[in-house]
Amino acid sequence: MKASELAAFLGGTLEGENTEIYACAGLEEARKGDLSFCKDPKHVKLVETTGASAVLLPPDWTHGAPCAIIRVEDPNRACMKAAELFAPPEPVRAPGVHPTAILGPGVTLGENVHVGAYTIIEKGTAIGDGAVIEAQVFIGENCRVGARTHIYPQVTLREGTVVGADCIFHCGVRLGGDGYGFNNGRREDGSVYIEKIPQLGIVEIGDGVEIGSNTTIDRARIGRTYIGPMTKIDNLVQIGHNVKVKGYSGLIAQSGVAGSTEIGYGCLIWAQAGISGHIKIADGVQVGPQAGVPQTLDGSLKYVIGAPAMSMKDMAAITLAPKMIAKLKAEIKDIKAKMKV
Amino acid sequence: MKASELAAFLGGTLEGENTEIYACAGLEEARKGDLSFCKDPKHVKLVETTGASAVLLPPDWTHGAPCAIIRVEDPNRACMKAAELFAPPEPVRAPGVHPTAILGPGVTLGENVHVGAYTIIEKGTAIGDGAVIEAQVFIGENCRVGARTHIYPQVTLREGTVVGADCIFHCGVRLGGDGYGFNNGRREDGSVYIEKIPQLGIVEIGDGVEIGSNTTIDRARIGRTYIGPMTKIDNLVQIGHNVKVKGYSGLIAQSGVAGSTEIGYGCLIWAQAGISGHIKIADGVQVGPQAGVPQTLDGSLKYVIGAPAMSMKDMAAITLAPKMIAKLKAEIKDIKAKMKV
Amino acid sequence: MKASELAAFLGGTLEGENTEIYACAGLEEARKGDLSFCKDPKHVKLVETTGASAVLLPPDWTHGAPCAIIRVEDPNRACMKAAELFAPPEPVRAPGVHPTAILGPGVTLGENVHVGAYTIIEKGTAIGDGAVIEAQVFIGENCRVGARTHIYPQVTLREGTVVGADCIFHCGVRLGGDGYGFNNGRREDGSVYIEKIPQLGIVEIGDGVEIGSNTTIDRARIGRTYIGPMTKIDNLVQIGHNVKVKGYSGLIAQSGVAGSTEIGYGCLIWAQAGISGHIKIADGVQVGPQAGVPQTLDGSLKYVIGAPAMSMKDMAAITLAPKMIAKLKAEIKDIKAKMKV
Q1: Residue C234 with chain B: CB contacts under 8 Å
Q2: Looking at residue C184, what is its pLDDT?
């Protein structure tokens, strides 16, 4: 799209070359063909060195730019509007079942459901109105998927999984695996045994839950592994059997929650954090990146970090220990010197 | 199922409303329609606040319950029995090859093998008696899969993978990927090169191994990456090329083992732990959650924690350093005060 | 293959039994039927205890071996040559589109492209000459895949993904997922809201990039998440939206990079390391295993370790704190004793 057309679309004015624009990007990553934006003169250096072909700037910008300028009232907002223009069009998943999809006996589909190619839905499963089940998905027996839920390609739901409305599951999500459950020990004759514990429960997902690529959530030993409404889970997260996430919480990439733990409302579990089994995280608590939580957090700390997880202050004290030690060492040296006098 | 029917099935007696029961759950997560259980009066508070519709209690329970009661001799055992009743029925994977499965030339199937829809088994591969290869699986050329091994949907086995009998692979398991192997450096002219090292070996899995969802195990550079018998691997675990796990060990979720490392018999690698390459973990050693093991553990420590991995005692000393420092600081202040006198 | 044939093939001489050889392996993991190798007499103990059926040794080896010996000039090199012989033959992916592959309207394939069974390529996507798209792959609308790029089974590329030439994507790679992006807070009436932020950008992968099994790379919020040329990414790695990896870098297994971070040329991010969002890692910096990087690394440190990431020296000081404290304690005790005198 020509910069002039873009300027007209955004209600701005073009200065400089009427260059061709293909995409939006931040000032630093932008390259030829990109539109970027800046609102604040404090980023003038980034504007001066940007590789963009055009930049959205406010009317009162006096620092120039090394490329075409489109002046608009609100550069951030204008760039978002332009980004929507350049975004790959969202694929249309029209209602209908692809002829290669395989639906078992007793499968019920609501109105306007999309089922993609090579998808398998096994017997007794019910899919709600307006749900989109993309290609190459596997949904086992007797599952329920709520209205308008969108399941991207190559997701697997094992038998009995229950999913609410308005959920989004990204590629490679695995719901309802057996998880890790074994009895082991030694028999009287000294030989070792390892026996699988049957995992008889299910996974239940509330409304409005989003689950990132390749995240795994295990079925319960008995009862349900439960992810409450509006919980947002990032990529490559592991949730063990019988975990209960009450709802409105976030779990960032590569974090893990061990079996039977309960996570309260409005918690935020940062990336790569690990939470032990059979404990509770109180409502609203944040667990910092890479933190390891060995026991219940009752909410008296709102943010924990480190392993074992502690307050920021306690963590800082450990990190500062070498400095404190050096100081004490100097004082002791000083005392000794004085004593000899 | 009516509570009265359930009571009869479990050999117990019903007190209170003959309510409808749909599932089992622990006292805390239970809700309307759930059966829960309690054996020990010390959990009386959890019984009093449970949301269950009925609860299994011992004959001598005198504390009542806010819902129907079914009295049985052993509430835990009875609840497991009930859980089996309510568990989603295990899907039947009858012997036979789905018409959409694609089998290459020279593929041999044992007796009573199940091959699911849209599964691909490439030439020269042999599947043992009673194996279940579910839908949408990919098994490359010249693999061997042992008797009764169960492979869930969307697993991939690259060419040459050898799998024992009685294994279970959950959805999204990846066996035989190339792993990370590159030669890099600078040429005489100063330019950088990065060359792929051919990964010529295979993955070999012993009997009775279970592998969790989305776990990845790389093929060997030469020879085999080997997972010994009865090893149990959780979800999202990474095993590098030429790793050797002798057997009867457990690797919990999101742990990782770098290339050419050997893990002894009966080890337990806890969640999110990382083990460096080219080292050995002696038989029976446990590596704690999030621990980082940079060098061989010869078994003189039975449990390590922290990064670099150390004993519990050494780890505690680091965590307690700030307290110790504060104590020394006070003592020095005291000495100084006395010296001035 | 007979040991004598192998000796002839490798230009060596056989001593001892003309045994049958099936595979190559290191001295320690080798078992009956394996060929192993040793060059250096310092490993004589490993030779003495190897389970191999034959071992490649240099002409001047005088320590014998518990199995057949094949003497060659360069045992390491000879073993690599033999390993190629025993390696599972690389599957032939001949040009052509499998009849079960589904290609949308406007898909263009270069010359000699392979498209495997049950693979889906959606409308408007272009695949370059000589590319291999294996079975059960999903490539969304309007993607571009460069020449000779090899995509293994069960990879998913969401719409708009751009991939360079000569890339390798292993099984289960997920490109272009939405990532984690939400606006949340409280409305004036006190109720909580969590709104999805549209992810309007794409993923762009440079030439020669290799991506390991089950690794996930999120699409940009606007613009592109960019992985520069020759970057090598291991298994189970997470790359957030709008991350920029300039090129010629390595990211080892289970590491993660949060949104909008830039990684310079020639960096090495070791296993399980985590890098925060909106920061920069300077060219050539290495981030150690399990390190957590909260802020920009400007290159003044070439290697960091720990969380928060620091120099090796600073890390050592923390680990040594308990020892230093014990020493100071002894000195204080000594001072007190003297003062009393």
Answers
A1: 179-180, 238
A2: 84
CA end-to-end span of chain C:
85
With a cut of 80, say whether residue C340 has pLDDT above it. no
pLDDT band at residue A341 using 50, 70 and 90 as cut-offs: low
Assess whether C100 and C77 both reside in one domain.
no
- Give the one of C34, C266, C271 whose C-beta lies nearest to B256's C-beta: C271
Residue B341 reports pLDDT greater than 70: no
Note down the domain range covering C61: 3-86
End-to-end CA distance of chain B: 85
Tell me, yes or no, whether B65 and B141 share the same domain: no
User: Which residues does chain C have within 8 Å of residue A80's beta carbon, measured at their own beta carbons?
Assistant: 222
The residue of A174, A209, A234 whose CB has the most chain C CBs within 10 angstroms, and thus the best one to mutate to test that interface, is A234
CB pair distance less than 8 Å for B158 and C135? no
Of B83, B213, B252, the CB nearest to A216: B213
Identify the CATH number of the domain in which residue A55 sits.
3.40.1390.10
Model confidence pLDDT, tens digit, residues A129-177? 999 999 999 999 999 999 999 999 999 999 999 999 999 999 999 999 9
Residue B122 with chain C: CB contacts under 8 Å = 91
Final residue of a domain: which of A26, A60, A86?
A86
Question: What's the confidence (pLDDT) of residue C341?
Answer: 53
B339 in A contact zone (CB under 8 Å): yes
Q: Identify the pLDDT of residue C284.
A: 95
**Cα C313 from Cα C304, distance rounded (Å):** 10
Looking at the 3D structure of chain C, how many domains does it have? 2
- CA atoms of B41 and A298, how far apart (whole Å): 24
C117/C253 same-domain check: yes
Q: Report the chain A residue with the minimal C-alpha distance to residue C324.
A: A325
Residues C174 and C27 in one domain: no
A113 within some domain: yes
Instruction: For residues A62-88, give the mean pLDDT.
Output: 93
Sequence-separated contacts (24+) of A154-158 with Cβ below 8 Å: A154/B154, A154/C138, A154/C154, A154/C156, A156/B152, A156/B153, A156/B154, A156/B171, A156/B172, A157/A203, A158/A203, A158/A219, A158/B152, A158/B171
Residue B333 located in a structural domain: no
Token reading at B76: 């835990």
pLDDT tens-digit readout, B35-85: 999 999 999 999 999 999 999 999 999 999 999 999 999 999 999 899 999
Query: Per the domain annotation, does A312 fall within a domain?
Result: no
* CA dihedral (A49, A54, A58, A63) positive or negative: positive
pLDDT above 90 covers a percentage of chain C that reads 90
Instruction: Compute the distance between CA of residue B263 and CA of residue B253 in angstroms, rounded to an integer.
Output: 16
In this structure, is residue C326 part of a structural domain?
A: no
Give how far A46 is from chain B: nearest CA, Å. 29
- Answer yes or no: do B82 and B111 share one domain: no
CA distance C136 to C157: 12
Domain shared by A21 and A154, yes or no = no
Q: What is the CA radius of gyration of chain A?
A: 28
CATH code of residue A284: 2.160.10.10
User: Which residues, 6+ apart, have CB-to-CB distance to A96 below 8 Å?
Assistant: A114, A115
Same domain, residue pair A107 and A81: no
Q: Which tens digits make up the pLDDT trace of A91-131?
A: 999 999 999 999 999 999 999 999 999 999 999 999 999 99
Whether C218 contacts chain A with CB within 8 A: yes
The residue among C86, C119, C138 that closes a domain is: C86
The answer for A 72-111 residues in CB contact with C (under 8 A) is: 79-80, 83-84, 86-91, 100
At A184 the pLDDT is 84
> Same domain, yes or no, for C70 and C133?
no
Report CB contact under 8 Å: A34, C178.
no
pLDDT in tens, C42-62: 999 999 999 999 999 999 999
| Chain B residues close to A328, C-beta within 8 Å | 325, 328-329, 332
